[in-house]
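Supplementary notes (optional reading)

For those who missed the lab, this is the record we used. Protein: peptidylprolyl isomerase. Length: 190 residues.
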Amino acid sequence: MILQCFAALQCSIVPHHPTVRLVHPKIISPTPSSSTITRRGALSAALTSTTFTLILTLTPPSKSAIAEFSELPRSGGVKALELRLGDGEVPADGDQVAVHYYGRLAAKQGWRFDSTYDHKDENGEPIPFVFVIGSGKVISGIETAVKSMKVGGVRRVVIPPSQGYQNTSQEPLPPNAETVYNHFQSNSSC
């Protein structure tokens, strides 16, 4: 019996899953010599050891170890992945908040369309995006995401078109674009 390892690469979103297949070879010589048995034994032991090492190192992490996006309550489909929980207050309507973000399109290989880190003050520090919760000055997906964050929190947010830029062409974004905000951070709440 020979063990053969095969690893199949799947979609880039799906983790790498190794598979092991057992293959029964045809026996060619009916009486092996003593040196052939020794080589077979050594080869079999090495192959078995390598196979088990591959299985142990390539086994995907348990489901509990993989962070998942969750839909925010009453958000219209906005999903968030918590990267770091904040330790401050949660903002309320009328509070002024400052956030840093990288805005990307979910399509077009994650094309970045905006980032607060691209806008610097006279000291070279990134300028946060400041707005008042409930003012209607930002797309509803951003407001929904920030309203449920504590100050100092970092999350990745996926905003569907219905809560984002919808079917209007707001350059540089195409109509009905699903957007992803990476490292969406709530810095302060006043």
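If you only remember one thing from this example: The chain has two domains: 2-62, 70-189.
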